[in-house]
Amino acid sequence: MREHGHLSEWNEDRGFGFIAPANGRARLFVHVSAFPRQGGPPSIGEILSYEVGEGRDGRAAAQRVQRPGGAKRAHGSRPSSSPPRRAVPWTGGLVLAAVAVVAMFGLRETTRAGSTAGNAATPLPATRAAPVAPRFSCDGRTECPQMRSCDEARYFLRHCPGVRMDGDRDGVPCEQQWCP
C-alpha cells in the first residue's frame, strides 16, 4: 500500500535520509536507490509517495519512491518495449493536489496531537503498543449515516480527507448516532 510524506532529512554525501510520513508515524529511512533515476537529487521538504518495506538492516524503510507527476518506473528497472503512452495533461496536477491534501491532513493531525502533547494534565503512556494494521480504509464515505460503529467513525475522522462527521469540531465524530 502506498503512503505519503515529505523528505525531512537528507545526507547527499552518504545517499540517504528520512521521510516524515503524513500519517504522523515515526520518521522512515530512505536510500537514494529507492528514488527514480530521473528527476534529479532529492530535496528536503519534497512531497513523496512510497511503499514501506524492509531495509538491509531489517528495519522499515521506504521503497519504490515516486514524486508527484513523475515516472512510475522504479530505480534500476528497464523500460518496456511498448511505445510510450501520452499523459493526460491534467493528471500530474491532480496527483500533486491529492498528495498535497494528504500532506495537509497529516500536518493538521500532527499539529492537533502536538497541541495536546504539552498539556501537563495528559499522562503519557509508559509503553507504546506495537502498530496494528487498520481494520478500516478510506473508501469515500464522508458522513455519519454511512458508518457502522464509533470506532469506524473515529478512524475516518482521523485518517480520511473530506469527512463531515464532527460538526462542533471537538474531535468526537457522529455524536448523535455512534459516539454519544
From TrEMBL:
InterPro entries: CSD_CS (IPR019844), CSP_DNA-bd (IPR002059), Excalibur_Ca-bd_domain (IPR008613), NA-bd_OB-fold (IPR012340). One of its GO terms (molecular function) is nucleic acid binding. Pfam families: CSD, Excalibur. This is Cold shock domain-containing protein. Residues 2-67 form the CSD domain. Gene3D superfamilies: Nucleic acid-binding proteins (2.40.50.140). Residues 55-87 are annotated as: Disordered. It comes from the Bacteria. It comes from Marilutibacter spongiae.
